[in-house]
Write a structure and sequence with these properties.
The complex is a heterodimer of chains A (71) and B (178). Chain A is mainly alpha-helical. Chain A contains two helices and no strands. In chain B, the strands form two sheets. Chain B has a four-stranded antiparallel β-sheet. A three-stranded antiparallel β-sheet of chain B has the order 5-6-7. In chain B, helix 1 crosses helix 2 and helix 1 packs antiparallel against helix 3. Classes of the chains: A mainly alpha (71), B alpha+beta (178). At the A-B interface, helix 1 and helix 2 of A face helix 3 of B.
């Protein structure tokens, strides 16, 4: 069960990575001198890191061994 | 980064009014707090669910939901925020972010401006002071318009003043350089 959950998590993280890369790419590439894009980008990155760490922590704390697909 | 020449100075930059993003912002906020509201209304149901599956798994699903809302909100915000209208002392740049991978950039020399029109149609645009600016150029180039921009009257004045200075520079370069 743990390996299945881990595979699902990897797929989800790959999906999130694409979306995160899109946002970061856009804000970095299309900023212009004097606008607030750097602050917005930092806010987004900090929030994303918080969510990533929370996800990893919670994933590791779930008792996967107690679940069974065929119970 | 959008390139601004060394000789160029940004006089003003404008984005669409906050009202354009309001509905998306409220939707995101509701989706964010939705699970918490459901828990507040049906706490016993969550207790039963946590016994069936583990509480950590419920939290994991909730965090992944919140992360998805966070990322989706910023994608929508980038579509709103990257629509920008920049007035420099040489040109007007209109950048329109149509989608995550769809963008148009229009550039207009200030000397070629023939007409600037503003439109504020309806109750909300009048009350919240936003509208559409249309800039018409000489020749066959189509006009470009920037919709739902705040304080369009002020922007029009900025454009007209920049246009006047650009025309003077264009016709009397020696006088302007002294």
């Amino acid at each position: 069960m743990r390996s299945l959950a881990f595979s699902l998590l990897i797929i989800i993280l790959i999906g999130f990575s694409g979306a995160i890369a899109t946002v970061v790419f856009h804000f970095k590439k299309y900023a212009f001198p004097g606008d607030k894009t750097p602050i917005i980008l930092k806010t987004f990155v900090v929030g994303t890191v918080v969510f990533l760490l929370a996800t990893l922590f919670l994933f590791l704390s779930v008792p996967w061994g107690s679940f069974s697909l065929f119970s | 980064m959008i390139k601004i020449r060394d000789s160029e100075k940004i006089l003003a930059s404008h984005r669409k009014t906050w009202f354009v993003f309001l509905f998306t912002g409220i939707s995101s906020a509701l989706m964010f707090i939705g699970p918490l509201l459901v828990y507040a209304i049906f706490p016993s149901a969550f207790g039963l669910l946590a016994k069936q599956v583990s509480a950590q798994l419920l939290w994991l699903i909730l965090v992944l939901w919140w992360w998805a809302i966070w990322t989706g909100t910023f994608i929508s915000f980038s579509n709103y925020y990257l629509d920008v209208f920049i007035i420099t002392n040489e040109r007007i740049l209109h950048i329109s972010q149509l989608g995550p991978f769809s963008r148009t950039v229009s550039e207009l020399r200030l000397e070629r401006i023939q007409d600037v029109t503003i439109e504020q149609l309806g109750l909300l645009p009048t009350l919240l002071h936003f509208g559409t600016i249309r800039v018409q150029t000489a020749g066959e180039s189509p006009s470009f318009s920037f919709r739902t921009v705040p304080q369009p009257t002020k922007i029009k004045e900025t454009i007209m003043e920049a246009h006047r200075v650009a025309l003077m520079r264009h016709t009397n370069p020696n006088k302007m350089s002294t």
